[in-house]
UniProtKB/TrEMBL annotation:
GO function terms (MF aspect): arginyl-tRNA--protein transferase activity
All residue ranges annotated as the N-end rule aminoacyl transferase C-terminal domain in the record: 92-200
Pfam families reported for this sequence: ATE_C (PF04377)
Protein name per Swiss-Prot or TrEMBL: N-end rule aminoacyl transferase C-terminal domain-containing protein
Source organism of this protein record: Segetibacter aerophilus
């Protein structure tokens, strides 16, 4: 694997314009740190695969047919956006999610998000989705002055047909639009895996990809994974 860089919070924490600048430079949250990398291993004893950071241009993002279908199917659920927290209800949902997904995740939701003994350096929010009083999905994100960054989405396995992971993405996008944010950072995509391809949802033409050596963002839909893989081999290894 290539180098892994991280930054710990200073006295100003990771908020407002400082958070925007780090996201624009390809840094992303991991617990209480901001990190960046050009490749990652998707599991133990697996080779590293190239990754490229993505962001969605909020004002340019349209809703494709799939997005509209998801919103229609979930229209009877209630949605709330509020400051982030983790309680027993969320941990119970996380446990169901953890046992359902085919990849490794942290033991608890709290472990994934932060370390309790360290002051929280982010301005964090959460989206909660309920079927009557039943919590069926929760999505976490951090916000800056002009940006939001999606951190994690969890959902109840019994509601698979509602595509609640993508529904949460749409709710975060709507929040960013309502708050007049410019960018929605969704993490990275990989040229060696399709696991992260959903991050171009719901409008690939509104997605930009970062070329970290140049610190330039370019339209993702004008490129191909083959081009990005070749670029990685030439300039990012």
């Amino acid at each position: 694997m290539g180098p892994f860089y991280y930054i710990a919070a200073d006295e100003n924490s990771f908020k407002n314009e400082s958070f925007d600048h780090l996201l624009a430079a390809g840094y992303y949250r991991m617990q209480h740190l901001m990190f960046t990398c050009n490749d990652t291993a998707l599991g133990e004893d697996m080779p590293a695969v190239p990754v490229f950071w993505l962001r969605t241009l909020v004002n340019q993002c349209g809703l494709n047919r799939a997005a509209k279908t998801i919103l229609k199917k979930a229209e009877n659920f209630s949605v709330s956006v509020q400051p982030a927290s983790v309680d027993d209800e969320v941990e119970s949902l996380y446990a169901l999610y953890k046992n359902h997904v085919p990849f490794s995740v942290s033991t608890t939701c709290t472990d994934y998000l932060h370390q309790e003994i360290v002051p929280h350096p982010f301005d964090s929010m959460m989206v909660q989705v309920r079927d009557d009083d039943k919590l069926i999905a929760t999505g976490y994100f951090d916000k800056g002055s002009q940006s939001i960054a999606g951190i994690m989405n969890i959902y109840h396995p019994d509601y698979n047909k509602y595509s609640l992971g993508k529904f949460l993405m749409l709710q975060k996008l709507q929040y960013a639009l309502s708050q007049k944010k410019t960018f929605y950072y969704t993490g990275y995509i990989s040229t060696g895996s399709t696991r992260f391809d959903y991050k171009t949802f719901p409008d690939p033409t509104a997605v930009e990809v970062l070329f970290p050596d140049k610190q330039e963002w370019q339209p993702y839909h004008l490129l191909s994974k083959a081009f990005l893989a070749e670029y990685y081999s030439k300039f990012l290894v």
